[in-house]
Structure formats: structure tokens, C-alpha cells
Amino acid sequence: MDNREVLVDVKNLRTFFYTEDGVVPAVDGLDLTIHRGEIVGLVGESGCGKSVTALSIMRLIPNPPGKIISGEIIFHGENLLKKSEEEMRLIRGDKISMIFQEPMTSLNPVFTVGDQISEAITLHQKTDEAEARKRTVEMLHLVGIPEPERRYRQYPHELSGGMRQRVMIAMALSSNPDLLISDEATTALDVTIQAQILDLMRGLQKKLGMAILIITHNLAVVAEMAETIAIAYAGKIVENASAREIFKSPRHPYTYGLLQSIPKFAERRTNEPLPAIEGMVPSPYHMPNGCRFNPRCPFATEKCRAEEPELVELTPGHLVRCFHPIEP
To answer: pTM of this prediction?
Structure first.
């Protein structure tokens, strides 16, 4: 039982996209809780609704074609879905910040990195230009960028990929947010830089006391970082538990399949094929009846193909959406 204050409580979130080919239920009844100061990992294959969940929390769903049609996103006790766009602009980048996957498309190429961070500080902290510049240099130093005064005057194309990602982190942390969302923030980086960025985020989280939502398909990342892991599949959470429970005793067949697909070089023979989950994530235009994982599940029954399971608590803090959970 986590006695920490609930910072974000996403309840039955449904975000749909209306296209010429039909309606895409990208997020369809998703529930997620993040406590103050907690690191939560949101994991799943591409197309499971992870990034759409993050954009929904930020209220950045492009409309049209996307629309949040129902649900609640409770942040500090208030429903973000009832906030005006002007109110959300004050929250974004201040109380909630987000690091995107590719910094080169997120940073403006015609402004220096220092000017871009300073602008965020000026907007949310109401400081003058000199104070914003001082704070920016401090943030660049905090995220481990050498010679921050010189880097302040450089443009994004003059920095390496790892440096640009550090700039994005500095910008996201410039207002001391309560929640930092990292959407595949280390995917485009090589493993050495990835490890450095993860260490940096973990250290800053402990220092600043913020909560972090890490969105990734990489189980190694959440194993390294997260306290709690939520497994997403076809727009829904199918399992949610502590990281220890997820890796030690996965209860949903999808979670089990993901963990089995991780290479275990000490246990494998070179000629053995790596276990894989059969099939693919269903087309969002043609979701299967019943449990959405049933076409790929080795334990599926007629009930699974006819009825949709609810997310139930099997043991304290361990939630699973399955009629036939794997026994521990």
C-alpha cells in the first residue's frame, strides 16, 4: 500500500481519432495512478496507446482528428479535462513537463538553446532577462553540460544527440515540475549516452522530488528506473504492479510474453530461437471482440473471445485484466 499523495489519477480515459478510414480508439478505458515522487513506467508495443496517453495528460491531442471523448485526468485534485486552453498553457511546462523522443524536431533550429530555455523560464517564472539567463546556465550545469556559458550561445545543430537531449531535460526541469513525462526520451541514443541520461534523470528525481512517467517499449529501461510498471495493450492497461512484482511474478499472458522475449544470454544456447509473442497488435480499426489480447494468447477460451475482462486486484497492489491469470 502506497501512502504517498496521489499526484495524477487517470480514470477511464478514452481518446479517439476520427479518420477517413474509420474511428481509431487509441486509448480506450485506460486507468493509471502516479503518486508524488514516484517513477512509473508505461510499457507496451508500438500502437498500444502509450504516447497518446501522455499527450492526453498534457492536453496536446491534435483536434481534429483526435478527441478526448470521456474520462478524468485528476491532477492536484482537479480535472485537467475541464481546464480551459489558457489554464492548460500555465500548467504545461510549469507543473507538468514533457521530454519528447527526438530533440532535433522539438528544438527550434533558428534560436540558441539558451534562448529557448530562457523563454520557458521567463514565461512560467515571471523573471527578467538577466535572471532567466542566470537560471538557464544553472540548469545546463545541473544536467551535466560542460561549459554551460558557451553552450548557451550555441544552436541545436552544433550539439550532439546526447547534448540536445540534456538541453530538453534542462528545459523540462527549468520550472521544477511536479510531474515529468519522458516519452521514449532515450530511444534514439546509443546505449552509453542512454545510461548517462537515465542516471541523470534518476539523480534529478531524487534531488527535486518530482514524479516521472517513463514511456517506453524497452523493459531494461523500466527495470533500471521504475518503482511501478503499467503494461499497456491496445489502449488499455492489462497489468499494473510494482516493478519487483512484474519481473518476479507476471500474471498477465502479455506481460509474461514480453518478459520471455528478453534475451537471457547466460541461459540460452546459440541455436535456440528467442521466444516471441505470436501475431501482432490488432488493427485499431478492427479490434477483436472480448479480451483484446485473445487472438495472440495461448490460454484464450471462448469466454475470452466473448467477454472483456475488467482490471481487478489479484493481490494487494497487483492489478490484472485477465480471466485466466498466470499462477505465481
So the answer is: 0.88
